[in-house]
Amino acid sequence: MTITSTPIPAVPNDGPADLPGLAELVCALRHCAQLPGLLIRVSPDLGNNAEAARSRCDRAPRIALGADLLTDSGSLPLYGVLAHEIAHHALDHGDTRPFWRNPVWLSKAALLGGLVVRLPLPVLAVLVCVVLAAALAGARRERLQEYDADTHAVRLLEAAGLPGRRLVAAALADLVDEPAGYRLIGWVFDGHPSARARRRNLAAGRPARRLRWALLWQRTPAPTTALGFTCTACELADTEAVIW
């Protein structure tokens, strides 16, 4: 894949930004997030969605972009989506834990073992409750990661000299609102908060609600500044971002 050198995209006051300069933007965000490398691939199956992942072989940060994100007329949402997925890697989200450290897996294994040895029904009922509680706790953990990635994406974009809040808000504005049933109770079982909840949290400008002691273990690295840079690995020349 050949990457041509173009300036970091400037965000205009009216109308969408141009896609040329996307490589520089990604490289600037990677430097701001202090990632050693980043592999981006386009996936037609994702549509206008994106996902962050890691390879089990080399642990290299990877981002899959839906093809529709590159063909839409407005590129502002794309910049916000990229920053969000890079923020997931910067915050070490999605790091797969061994099965023996996964509460959901352990609770399910305990329930299966109880069924095999035919434990009394009251004990099985307790194990079912434990499985449900572990699943709900895991879903909440993933929802908090989505909120944190939105907040950190703003910091990364601002460190690159771009209007972070505006770009992330543009990405969230493109999300389809979930039906009323999902917003009422369905979100409890899902790892993604509703689009409305994410927009509300971004507008609040503070971390999502959680127990205070939980923030003691929250890893939030400070982004480095990459307003202008020279990246020999990416064959990109020194550029200067335009701040609007």
Strand order of the largest sheet: 1-3-2
Please count the helical segments: 8
The structural class is mainly alpha
Record field, number of beta strands: 3
Cα-atom radius of gyration: 20 Å
Q: Domains counted in the coordinates: how many? A: 1
Quote the beta fraction.
5-15%
The biggest sheet amounts to: 3 strands, mixed
Helix content: 40-55%
Low-confidence stretches: 1-18, 238-244
H/E series: HEEEHHHHHHH
Principal-axes shape call: globular
The end-to-end span amounts to 31 Å
> Mean pLDDT across all residues, rounded?
78
Keywords summarizing the entry:
244 residues; disordered N terminus; disordered C terminus; metal ion binding; hydrolase; globular; 3 strands; transmembrane helix
What does this structure look like?
The chain is mainly alpha-helical and 244 residues long. The protein has one domain. It contains 8 helices and 3 strands. The protein has helices at residues 22-33, 67-71, 76-90, 103-116, 121-159, 164-173, 180-184, 195-204, and strands spanning 39-43, 50-54, 61-66. It is globular, with a radius of gyration of 20 Å.
